[in-house]
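Many introductory courses stop at the sequence. We go one step further.
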Amino acid sequence: MIPGNRSLPRAFLRKKLVTGSMLALLTAALGAASVPVQAAAHTAVGQSRVVAGVNAPTTTMDQPGPRGLRGKEGRDGKDGKNGKNGRRGPTGPTGPTGDVGPTGPTGPTGADGTGDTGPTGGVGPTGDTGPTGGTGPTGADGACHSINSNIHGETQVFAAVHDGTIWVGARGLTPQVDPFDWTDITTLGVDPSVTIEGACDATIDERTPNQVFVEVITTSGEVWETLCDIDRGDEAVEPPPAPTDPAFAAATLDCNGTWTLVQNQFVP
């Protein structure tokens, strides 16, 4: 390349070199007679100057030549590496609250929880006594139980009431106490017979040595009576036989009459 003209194309340089060679041949033919020509030739070789003739203009290679053809565009270079990520910027301000979304479906019912038992409350003050309630209905008649006895000589007689049933009895007392001999006299008499309803208590007492009175009061307040004969059995025999004797006869009461409502009834 020629100093000062690094951008000149190679075709331009080849043209200039050929011109210099032709000048050298011309100089040899003339015998180098002319100093100016030699100087010119020397200049052409050493300074790259061209002399065409005595009066020819001198061209200096230091002057810029015509612009050469544009070279082809170079290929694109490789992509450079990605640069490092920049630092995280500061957090931006909180945006406005969005609209409330639609209500979601109801979830399944949870299991029942057992809470702790609360403390026991204190006893409150006693309230005022309420008004007396009305009288309740009359209850059913209660069962009556009673017994009464009388002793005459060696014979004991009894009258008793158990659950409304009237009983009489007699027993001997010598030479040992005999077993009871009970007779139900709740209903007495014939044509018509009389039955005591609601008997509650009875008494027995001697009227004569061989006869006793039996009186009964009912739950309604009625008083009834009857007479019973005493059969003393072997109690009247002197001396009485032993109870183990097959001929021994125990004392009994015979109530063969009927029930009579006592005049002038008891009035509570």
